[in-house]
């Protein structure tokens, strides 16, 4: 048996100090008849069996646990039958397998919610692959979930693309949304999200009614591709990045869900949001692990006009750099904490979970162009499964596969908070895609509220239904 090894500082950040499961995932929706569970297991053993990263067991700290760090214990192999399971949405609430047909989008969404809101079992390498029969309207899904200390979002993409059949096409965009991202290289390939560094400053928290306990929730929906493309063309010059569009839409959606920020309780401080940045170099393009940093910026929630919010996000991201509280600050702060010991890194991670530090996280990325398939069954859509963040926080993820955009909202706020937030965000994307003066609900445009706004077009009414019962077809 090989000896165990210590976790890196970024891996230690994701090991329970924040009181959440730390489970990340990605679901791939396919058309056609699903493969058999044994056939999928054989494919996993063939294509993933030699990867050392998937044979690591996460060990808790040795006594005294308060001062020690977690460790990785490498195994000779993983048990494919325990890591690859099959379920059917018709009986998904019982977490059992079934051979009958299905297609209940609500059950599929509920299953995805359980996968990210529950911690993975201890004692085995912390990842699972789930074959979901009858995922949504005749489609089946393959869902990969993992502990965030083991894999980041880019690693999930690397593993699934290795499992599927296909070759990335030319012109694949791997942009991070930061135009001058080269300055991040000094931070190194293994950095966490920015912790609450001294002097970083806390902002305002999302307003939550007193007396209600925050609960995790997940919703996902298909997004109109034309609206996203139009929103990206709404800014002059090179246009807007996906991150700029998603951050601006998130700011507007939070205004819709929580009301005018001028009426939020507490001092009028900035509301901070963040998005991850992949720090892999070209030579590390296929590296598995956790190799991300993040950018923390104030969100323009006080701006009432969608165009102003998009322009403000462009300005905030343009100002990012190592001299403006970026990756260099992260490197110095985490490095200093790591010198004190794993306990200091965990304390830093815990402090970063204060309600006002960064309650909003946005992730936007494109899946490599294909086409992709699974034993002849074409890949139709990628559904991102971001992690549950600390109580009072929300996480929004937008993916693009071959022009099929999918939005997922994971909230840790009010019970059932994900569906209205996802619906509000799809409407914000539509507002960003239109001239400001003619956008419903924008200054100078026709006022709309509640059901009236939703019934204006069948498309966005369907989008809200999608967050409740799976996406519309």
Automatic annotation (TrEMBL):
Biased composition (Low complexity): 435-454
InterPro entries recorded: CAT-like_dom_sf, O-acyltransferase_WSD1_N
Molecular function (Gene Ontology), one example: diacylglycerol O-acyltransferase activity
GO biological process: triglyceride biosynthetic process
Keywords: Acyltransferase, Transferase
Source taxon at top rank: Bacteria
Family annotation (SUPFAM superfamilies): CoA-dependent acyltransferases
Residues covered by region (Disordered): 183-210, 435-473
Boundaries of every O-acyltransferase WSD1-like N-terminal domain copy: 24-172
A Pfam family that the UniProt record links to this protein: WS_DGAT_cat
Identification of the protein by name: Wax ester synthase-like Acyl-CoA acyltransferase domain-containing protein
Lineage: Bacteria, Bacillati, Actinomycetota, Actinomycetes, Kitasatosporales
């Amino acid at each position: 048996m090989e000896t165990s090894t210590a976790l890196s500082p970024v891996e230690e950040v994701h090991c329970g100090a924040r009181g959440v499961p730390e489970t990340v995932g990605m679901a791939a929706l396919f058309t056609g008849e699903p493969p058999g569970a044994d056939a999928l297991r054989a494919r996993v053993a063939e294509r993933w069996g030699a990867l050392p990263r998937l044979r690591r067991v996460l060990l808790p700290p040795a006594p005294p646990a308060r001062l020690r760090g977690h460790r990785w214990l490498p195994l000779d192999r993983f048990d494919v039958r325990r890591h690859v399971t099959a379920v059917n949405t018709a009986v998904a609430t019982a977490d059992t397998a079934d051979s009958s047909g299905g297609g209940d989008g609500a059950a599929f969404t509920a299953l995805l919610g359980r996968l990210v809101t529950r911690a993975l079992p201890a004692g085995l390498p912390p990842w699972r692959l789930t074959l979901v029969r009858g995922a949504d309207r005749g489609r089946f899904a393959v869902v990969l979930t993992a502990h965030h200390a083991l894999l980041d979002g880019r690693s999930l993409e690397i593993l699934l693309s290795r499992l599927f059949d296909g070759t990335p096409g030319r012109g694949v965009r791997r942009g991070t949304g930061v135009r001058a991202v080269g300055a991040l290289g000094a931070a190194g390939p293994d950095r966490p999200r920015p912790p609450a560094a001294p002097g970083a400053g806390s902002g305002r928290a999302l307003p939550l009614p007193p007396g209600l306990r925050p609960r995790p929730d997940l919703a996902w929906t298909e997004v109109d591709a034309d609206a996203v493309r139009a929103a990206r063309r709404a800014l002059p010059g090179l246009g807007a990045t996906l991150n700029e569009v998603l951050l601006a839409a998130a700011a507007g959606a939070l205004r819709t869900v929580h009301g005018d920020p001028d009426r939020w309780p507490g001092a009028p401080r900035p509301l901070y949001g963040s998005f991850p940045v992949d720090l892999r170099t070209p030579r590390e393009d296929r590296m598995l692990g956790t190799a991300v940093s993040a950018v923390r910026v104030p969100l323009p929630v006080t701006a009432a006009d969608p165009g102003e919010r998009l322009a403000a996000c462009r300005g905030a991201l343009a100002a990012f750099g190592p001299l403006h509280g970026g990756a260099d600050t992260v490197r110095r702060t985490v490095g200093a904490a790591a010198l004190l010991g794993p306990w200091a890194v965990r304390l830093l991670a815990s402090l970063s979970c204060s309600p006002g530090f960064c309650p909003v996280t946005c992730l936007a990325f494109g899946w490599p162009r294909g086409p992709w398939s699974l034993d002849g069954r074409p890949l139709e859509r990628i559904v991102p499964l971001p992690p549950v963040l600390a109580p009072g926080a929300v996480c929004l993820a937008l993916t693009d596969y071959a022009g099929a955009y999918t939005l997922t909202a994971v909230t840790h706020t009010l019970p059932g908070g994900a569906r209205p937030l996802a619906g509000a965000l799809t409407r914000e994307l539509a507002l960003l895609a239109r001239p400001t003066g003619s956008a419903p609900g924008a200054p100078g445009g026709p006022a709309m509220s509640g059901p009236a706004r939703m019934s204006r077009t069948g498309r966005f009414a369907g989008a809200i239904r999608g967050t409740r019962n799976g996406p519309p077809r």
